């Protein structure tokens, strides 16, 4: 289940240690330039080794992790937590993140006035 030998693709490792939900999301993040290995932009098939620093910008925040163990297949959360050292800045508190306006179901499309109020609330 857990291996420490041989090269592992960066997209596969990101998915295996549960930094993204799917491997295709990890590969897409690599292709979009949201993944950096040791400061350099990573392609999905780039191999990583123990001790590499992986920076991933995903879901609105940056994750900075140092690889401590290589895994090829997706593992459980407790094992995944042992596979990297998380040096990420703390996530912003939920109170700080403004909640998007939720419209009642069945109210239809927002009017021009509603749209302007929504934009004013969002600060646009």
UniProtKB/TrEMBL annotation:
InterPro entries in the record:
HSP15 (IPR025708), S4_RNA-bd (IPR002942), S4_RNA-bd_sf (IPR036986)
Q: Which Pfam families match?
A: S4
Region annotation (Disordered) maps to 99-124
Provide the protein name: RNA-binding S4 domain-containing protein
Record keyword RNA-binding present: yes
Q: Which family does it belong to?
A: Belongs to the HSP15 family.
Q: Return the Gene3D superfamilies for the record.
A: RNA-binding S4 domain
Domain (RNA-binding S4): residue spans on this chain = 8-75
Biased composition regions of type Basic and acidic residues, renumbered to the chain: 114-124
Task: Alphabetically list the UniProt keywords.
Answer: DNA-binding, RNA-binding
Q: Which organism is it from?
A: Streptomyces luteireticuli
